[in-house]
Design brief:
The structure is a homodimer. The relative contact order of chain A is 0.11. Chain A is about 35% helix and about 25% strand. Chain A folds into two domains: about 270 residues, Carbamate kinase (3-Layer(aba) Sandwich), CATH 3.40.1160.10; about 150 residues, VC0802-like (2-Layer Sandwich). By secondary structure, chain A is α/β, with parallel strands linked by helices. In chain A, a hairpin with a 5-residue loop joins β7 and β8. In chain A, the strands form four sheets. The first copy, chain A, has an eight-stranded mixed β-sheet with strand order 3-6-2-1-9-11-12-10, with helices on both faces. Chain A has a six-stranded antiparallel β-sheet with strand order 14-15-13-16-18-17. A two-stranded antiparallel sheet of chain A has the order 4-5. The interface between A and B is large, with 36 and 37 residues.
Amino acid sequence: MDKLRYKNKTLKEQKIMAVIVAKFGGTSVADIKRIESAADKIKKEVEAGNQVAVVVSAMSGVTNKLVDYCSEISPMHDVREYDTVVSSGEQITAGLMAMALQKIGISARSWLGWQIPIKTNNVHGKARIEHIDTAEIKKRLDINEVVVIPGFQGITEQRRISTLGRGGSDTSAVAVAAALNADRCDIYTDVDGVYTADPRIVSNARKLHKVSYEEMLELASLGSKVLQTRSVEMGAKSNVPIQVLSSFGEFIGSDRKGTLVTKEEDIVEQEVVSGIAHQKDEAKITVIGVEDVPGVAAKLFKPLADAAINVDMIVQNISQDGLTDMTFTVPRTDLERAKKVLKENIDLKYEDIAITENVAKVSVVGIGMKSHAGVANTMFSTLAEKGINIQVISTSEIKISVLIEQDYTELAVRSLHAAYGLEDQQKIM
Amino acid sequence: MDKLRYKNKTLKEQKIMAVIVAKFGGTSVADIKRIESAADKIKKEVEAGNQVAVVVSAMSGVTNKLVDYCSEISPMHDVREYDTVVSSGEQITAGLMAMALQKIGISARSWLGWQIPIKTNNVHGKARIEHIDTAEIKKRLDINEVVVIPGFQGITEQRRISTLGRGGSDTSAVAVAAALNADRCDIYTDVDGVYTADPRIVSNARKLHKVSYEEMLELASLGSKVLQTRSVEMGAKSNVPIQVLSSFGEFIGSDRKGTLVTKEEDIVEQEVVSGIAHQKDEAKITVIGVEDVPGVAAKLFKPLADAAINVDMIVQNISQDGLTDMTFTVPRTDLERAKKVLKENIDLKYEDIAITENVAKVSVVGIGMKSHAGVANTMFSTLAEKGINIQVISTSEIKISVLIEQDYTELAVRSLHAAYGLEDQQKIM
């Protein structure tokens, strides 16, 4: 079905109606002009014969301001009230978007999380969507009304507003698409797709036309910052094709100039390496001289997890004299808290703690890697040639990540991008 | 009952629990510091043994900004979506207020219009409250939880958010107080009560301790701008004592340093004249040489009403030769539209139209006026002594209004204030 729709362009040519969910992020609805520009794109989708549900973020800056208000009252504020406060940002955009659509002759109506309802669990501040009642939405879509839904919000069983956590609007969009069994979920954002590397670092980075959910997950969590991780997981689970595209161009979703995130089987020519991701502002912590006995890792990492510190790469060195070193990375912003936990809350003997700030993670990602040897070797020798020291290595089926000194990040990304031949040929000529 | 509670101070002394609704306007919740200061006042009410429901406005400036967004999209925007957008201002404050209360150890929870629910008719943008379900609120009050309610909003039968029109939070507060059968509705604002005249004009104006609903209606609609007219009407109808007091002082509601708006019977010493109100920026329109036959007034004023032009004082001169002149006032801001209606939409012959801009209305208000002669005469002779020409006179049971040249407003208000002996004796000494 997906193939039919996307390979042979039958949809537009044959005027078969598709159900499209279009999500516009904060910069795409930053002011009234941008909201109107987004409305124009939706109008084109409607005129192409599609049924469209729109998911909107808060106007950029609004959510931060609301979060700041809450923090100003108390860093330990009630997260149920926090949800009531911050969800209003998306509510505002939803109403404005419905107005902007009506102004250009498109029938539209906003539907808040509690009106649909979008039911979530009651983990306020980072709730998970449990069920979306599509009855009303479908009824509206069937009479060619555009349904405008504020992202990021839902309602708990206790009838209180919940929010899904930062970037939650992507998740809302994919969840709505899944519930509607939509043909595609378009994520309009301030970049026009997923690139083989950050174009600000690699000028001839190539836009990927298709990428698998699995690769996207690695690219997203490794710092590409295009799609929220949870939305990609949900897309994979419910098999909704997600398209990332810019809201600042003239084209619309059906013209497919962005990047389509889809299942592996739909990608005919799988690349060995799809892209080079990087994540700056990491910190490396080594706990030196830990007893090498079962349960040590649990004793070390549970208190960190309890403190909501996001531990990433973990490496354990070879044991000497019954003692070992444990090395792991945390975001730089969590470093001070991590040190505090290690000093105060760890029921574990160790000799010393060594901290290395200013490290960066660079990753090579590709689904084809599974069936191709030599990918790791190319990475290590390329970095060696440039004199870049590898501090930590971690691997998965479809990626290899290394930790290096932060100053070498750009050099590493550019060198690896060239080594794997990822350049946009047109940009080279 | 009211007398018992307010005359003999039994409430505080005997620790009888009272139900208080406290409303904080935009300037009283303008930023986090002010919200926290308002929360402190609520805490004192709770500690005094009262059950408290709080009604909040949007932080000052927020509603204007949201209204501007809507107008920027289209002056003819969908008022249902407008309500979804602008109601978020109060939603934000409600959540923040609940947090601020919790921070200082007061159990609190926000309840949005749709959560209570506050049911309104479906006249979006200026809806009327039809019913407030108090079951949940009462349950919460009974467990000593402060109930925080966003003003200005409700929900229609179609489950869409409605708003009550500008200043609607006063109405929300009085409606909640009426539904709860509350002992008092405190309106915290940026003035500390209702004065015998605008203190910026009359430096020794006296604060009224008590004023009747009827007087307050005249004072409010005549420009005292302290309470929304509809909230006073609702207070009168449901017999809820309304107290106006400043949110910037140290005292709280029970200390009664503000002005209590209550029923006439509860005011033992009724003043002949309670205050001098004034309204600048009026315009006078005289339609000259209209045929003096039945139906003329209807032909003249219906098109103006249809155009939502707020016609105020109306005077018809003595007929000469079968022709008469009709004079009325409109707010200066409506003048251009009124002229347009008169020139284009009036099915009525007339000789000419005379416009006088820069006129002001000055009114003497007092419930005791009913039983005292000579009030009007004092007004006219005082103005005559100062050489102030009266252009139009209109009267009701409890007020006399005159239209004068705007430049004389302050002189007129001060002279009348002195003539009726309204000065604060302490301020004179």
